[in-house]
Amino acid sequence: MELTEGNYNLVTEFILLGFPTHPELQIVLFPMFLMLYGMILIGNLIGLMMLIRIDPHLQTPMYFFLSNLSFVDLCYSSVIVPKMLVNFLSENKSISYYGCALQFYFFCTFTDPESFILAVMAYDRYVAICNPLLYKVVMSRGIRVWLIVLSYIGGNVSSLVHTSFAFILKYCDKNVINHFFCDLPPLLMLSCAGTSVNEWLLSTYGSSVEIICFFIIVISYYFILPSVLKIRSSSGRKKTFSTSASHLTSVAIYQGTPLFIYSRPSSLYSPNTDKIISVFYTIVFAVLTPLIYSLRNKGVKDAARKALRSKTDSS
Known about the structure:
By secondary structure, the protein is mainly alpha-helical. The protein contains 11 helices and 5 strands; from the N terminus they run βββααβαααβαααααα. Strand 1 and strand 2 (8-11) form a beta hairpin.
């Protein structure tokens, strides 16, 4: 549907192209992504968030930050995957202009805090390992709540900036977004107005946030690693390495992909490659987060065993 303004037909809805394949393959993709989304719900909502909430041994700053990491993973995947699943089975793959704006806004609102939270978790590990006597003071309940609140505020500000500048542009005639959700690079390609400001915001403002968070993580581990190597007991060193390794694995998987997608000039945009990368950091990462922090984490594994045992005993 289009509105006429002057010599232009303004777009009032977009078509999400998704993964253009044969209908038979679409039916195969639907259960695969449905299973992945089920794993996200179970792993993050039940597996981590509820375990951390109900187990008294997990009421520490590290697990408080982890539960928030799990929360944003659950939220941003829920912004994207349900619509994707509907489009797999529907011939009508349209999304309204305002629906597209809202999807992009909420996607950014929950993805942008992820980088902030990963940086906060690195700082938490630095204080716990390098300054253990000050840990309870530095990471008091009030301070850690403020760190999370500031992470969400930072994500919301970033989301408002990008959404506002993207949707004051005019979109004329072309309305097919070559993606499975309303992401910024493919959306800007449809604009009939200049997008230089938007591209500048992506490559400078957006990238600087990722780079600053990554810099905080690198500096934190620069001090953490020598402190870990000084631990005399092998069991203590192994336990410390285990928690740090889980966090570093998350950073390695998540941090680079958004930077790659959003920091490039539009001339280097590759729709098919970017869709695959987007699946990885919007869906697969949310699946992996509970696995990363449970398989290598004795506290989470013990809490899971205790919860299963109590459920078995009660039944």
